[in-house]
Amino acid sequence: MFKYILILLIFINISFANEHLVKKIHFRDDDAASRAATPLHPDSHIKIFIPNIPYIYITNCTNAGLIRSFDNERGWEYELAKSHNRVDDFTYEFELRKGLKFQDGSEFDTDDVVLNFEYFKRSPFLYTNIDNIDFDVIKIDKYKFKIVLKQKYEMFLTDLARIYFHTKEYLEKYGFEGSETGSATKMAGAYGMGPYTLKEGYALGSKHTAVIELEANPYYWNKEYPKIRRVTAYTQLSAAKALEMITKREGELDFAPIDFNKKIEVLTSKYAKLNISKSTNNFIIFFNLINANERLKSKEVRVALNQALNQENLLNFVYKNEGHISPFASSVNYEIVQKILKNAKPKEQESYTKEKMLKLLQGLHLEVFTQDSFMFLFKGIEYQLKEYGVTLSYTITSSEKDIYEQLLTTHKSQNTQAWDLLIWGDDDWYYANPWSVLFIYEDESAWSTIGKDRVMKSYIDEYFITKTDSKEYEEITSKILYRAQEMAYTLRVPSPNKVVALNKEVIYKPYKGAVIPIWEMQITKDHYSIRGEREYPTYLEAPIKPKREKYE
Amino acid sequence: MNKISIKFKLRLLFFILLLAITAIGYKSISISQDNKDRLEIVHSKSQNLLSLQDKIITPLYNLRELSQALVMAPNQKIRESILENLTMSIDRLDAAFFDYSKESMKIYEMWLNYKSLIGVTKSYLNLEFEEGAYINITTAGREQFGLLVKELLVIQSDLLSKSSLAYSEAVKDVVNIKIETFISLFVILLFSIIIGSLISNNIISSIHKVQNGLREFFEYLNHKREKANKIELVSSDEFSYMANMINENVQTIQNNIERDEILIKNATRVLLSIKSGNLGDRLDGHTHNMALGELKEMINDMIDSLEEKIQQEIKKRLENEQILLQQSKLASMGEMIGNIAHQWRQPLAQIIAIFMNMKVTYDFDKFTPLYLKQKIEEADKLTQYMSQTIDDFQNFFNPHSVKEVFCVEKACRDALFIVESSLKHNHIEVEFEVIDELKILGHKNEYSQVVLNILNNAKNILLEKNIKNPLIKIEIKEGDNFAIVKIGDNGGGIPDEFLEKIFEPYFTTRHKTQGTGIGLYMSKNIIEKNMQGYLNVKNTQDGACFTIKVLKEEQDEPTNSLES
Ligand SMILES: Nc1ncnc2c1ncn2[C@@H]1O[C@H](COP(=O)(O)OP(=O)(O)OP(=O)(O)O)[C@@H](O)[C@H]1O
Ligand SMILES: [Mg+2]
């Protein structure tokens, strides 16, 4: 009894400031949303770092299509279109929103749609099958038109989220050029219809400027967005530099994906908070089967390499638990993958003995081409492969465009950098759709480094024409995934979470896939860009309990 | 004191010793009791220290380690097992700290706070907010732990200094006790030393006197002293009895020794007289010493048997000498006859020629009385010569032993004369060189005989080896005090292995011509024993060379000096 009274007394005592007692580290809740500033404050400005596929993220902001990728069940919502109707397998009818304007203020209607599609058809992007599909765009009236496919093609609607509209001026000046990496805006200017206007710089797949400046588009159809006046995007900071900018000083960076092992630094920063979310993004480690180490051409060697990796240890020690083990190259977080894993009986692969693995792998030396932000992962892989006598050497770049330059030329053996392993931060750009990964198995594609695989080709051809809500869709996706797994076309690693450092005064809700909804971002009244002379309040420097989907 | 017996004195001494030991024993028991009390104090102080270390500090570090491991645990399973340990560790520490709260409230507060921080860490882990747990344990937890440990270490070092204070006090006490002990020991010792030394001095002075007496006696026994004095003791204890006994014995022994000394002196005298050749003396006198008596008997017996043995040996020697002499004479006789034969060969031939002449003359009738007278005269001369020869030889071998001073040359010539015709007959050339005219004292015949022996040996070798141009060389010259005769030949010399042996009796190489091997032995005896000279041999280039050295006689002044 005495003990409890004593403890009680002590706790009363502890609650007063006391030199010999240390306060626990209190993680405050993120209250930024409650302090949101009025949108579009004239000084509002954030700086973000986009190390992977900046062209996707930037065009998402600067451009608009008929529909837009979105975190809902179907994976999209209407953007410029108000509604649509699939008349039959080949025919789509669309109705545009009223009063749509380009970023330069000029009006937009069905004529612009038809014109843009004409340009598109001349030079479509090359990462789906749309380049092989002929279709007609038929104007019905100023707001209505229909698209008639001449072939069966089930990915058309999703492709539409990536077919952006440009002003006539732009089209006439710069034309339209689809490529393996899409059809991003080539020049800064008010040429698109997205929430932000490209003010400076550009981001194409294999080319981009280090800094891209965006400005809020006053003519954006949805008056709710954007909420911040100016956005500066960096594309090629080193991981360490970005971390330093966002954690050590205020005002240098507001958004940056970080290495998993840097979470603590963000958590303990005065200015940054941690935002972690489950994602459908992928880390793809390509095997070069075109012009690299001959031993890689042996399926057994590739299988052995895959088996040499202890996924659980990778997840624990390299990912710091920020991810999920996936049996495939694609993220396990895709709904369809979840479904497949739930329904299909997993095909058991032969598990190699250690002797066999050693025999296959001993002395194997692989040249790795990577962005510095993936070195943490390769260090983990190298450590595990070392046990089997595999050694790695590295060529490191801080810019993704260097990766593209080599990756996209390898299928024609035109790469200038020799590589055996190449990692690509394959964020889920095709949005909520495993095609983001599967397209690397399309053997005629620039993204493929696996050479010819007729079986795979037949599967992919079928994939193109399979309705996504059908049972067949699950089957064909499963076939492709298992085929890729069996052939060990990539070095499989766990599916990563999105781990992002944010300025504490930025309000942000991540999307699952490769969309950074910059237009949805907000800042608080205490954000450095609009705070004026005021010091950053000390109480805000306390660490924030990280947002994690489980906590939501 | 002098009237007290040693037994009583020793008892007194022992009693004093016992008293001292008891006093010291009592003192040491009381000291060890004191020490035990002090050690208990030191021990209890260090026990506090230890229990703080064992119950709180060490487990606290362990808890710290566990809480860190908890955060770092790679998987849930490991984490759970760590958690189990952690909970146990916290419970134990809780109890320990609660106990300790009586001592320091502050520490208990700190512990509770640290515990709550671990609780926070655990709750973060439950929420799978590992980063928060990590940060909490590495910042606030670490800090609180640091403060707590620092506080504990301060207390620990305080306890340490307390216990070392207790220790150093104990050490100081021990030093005091040491001094106290030393003083009491000193007093006890002083007391016992004084009493003890009084008693022991008394005993020791008696012992010293006895010892001195004994030493004097032993010195007397060892002949370092003429006489052993009596031991004088004033006391009437056991030592005085002992001294009396020793004195009596010393007297008896002195008497015995004196008697024995007389006997030994007698023995010395007897032995001296034996040494001088008188074997007739014997030991007499009386002794109590058995061994000495036996020795006396044995010496007497030994002298008896020695006398007998010597008598026998002398007899045997004389007999041998006789035989040798006989043999030598026989040999000389043989040689002499040979030499006479040679000497006679010439006159005999002339006598035969005279007879032949007489017969021819008679046949031719020219035999006249004058002729006859003349021939008889001639023959008479020859026979006279022959008879002279025999005389000469007889003279030479005549052993009339009168010492005389004689001329060395003459002696040599006499010897040479004996063998001369034999040498001529065998064509042996003789060179005779007299460098100095010298005289010596001795038996001339014996000396000549030696020269003759050497000449004969040379001749024998020269003939035996059939040497071409055989030569014998005789040289007489003067050395320091000596008359030296060297007789050399060209007979090839003596083989090295025989050089030592040729002077031994019966050594000969002349087996064919029946040498006896006595010649040189006798010669050496004559020169070295009878004449105190030297006879040596050495090999020269082509033969042997014998040297005879005998002290020369100067101006008729005979010297008996044997040394040179
Ligand atoms: N001048 C010499 N040269 C070589 N050998 C000699 C000479 N004189 C003596 N000897 C050796 O010494 C030996 C001993 O001599 P020694 O005169 O004692 O005996 P001997 O001549 O043999 O016999 P004998 O007793 O009949 O004289 C001889 O046998 C001989 O070998
Ligand atoms: Mg001889």
Arithmetic mean pLDDT of chain B: 84
Roughly what fraction of the amino acids of chain A lie in strands? 15-25%
Q: Specify the helix fraction band of chain A.
A: 25-40%
Largest interface, per-chain counts? A-B, 29 and 30 residues
Q: Which value, in Å, is the CA radius of gyration of chain B?
A: 63 Å
Whole-number tally of structural domains of chain B: 3
Mean pLDDT rating of chain A = 90
Number of discrete helical segments of chain B: 11
CATH fold title of the largest domain in chain B: Heat Shock Protein 90
Describe the structure in your own words.
The complex is a heterodimer of chains A (552) and B (564). Chain A is α+β, with helices and mostly antiparallel strands. Chain A has helices at 2-14, 54-62, 110-122, 156-160, 168-174, 239-248, 263-267, 299-308, 311-318, 335-343, 354-361, 375-386, 400-410, 435-438, 454-464, 471-487, 528-531; strands spanning 45-49, 67-69, 76-78, 81-86, 91-96, 135-139, 144-149, 196-200, 211-216, 230-234, 255-257, 272-277, 282-287, 323-324, 365-371, 391-397, 421-426, 490-491, 495-496, 498-503, 506-507, 522-523, 547-548. In chain A, a hairpin with a 4-residue loop joins strand 4 (81-86) and strand 5 (91-96). Chain A is globular and about 85 Å long. The mean pLDDT of chain A is 90. By secondary structure, chain B is an alpha+beta fold. Chain B has 3 domains: 23-185, Four Helix Bundle (Hemerythrin (Met), subunit A); 237-319, no CATH class; 399-564, Histidine kinase-like ATPase, C-terminal domain (Heat Shock Protein 90, 2-Layer Sandwich). Chain B contains 11 helices and 7 strands. Chain B has a 5-stranded mixed sheet with strand order 2-4-5-7-6. The two termini of chain B are 80 Å apart. The A-B interface holds A 3, 6-7, 10-11, 13-14, 18, 20-25, 27, 263-264, 267-268, 274, 316-317, 321, 543, 545-546, 548, 550-551 and B 74-75, 98, 101, 105-106, 108-110, 112-113, 116-117, 120, 127-132, 134-136, 139-141, 143-144, 147, 151. Adenosine-5'-triphosphate (ATP) binds next to helix 10 and helix 11 of chain B.
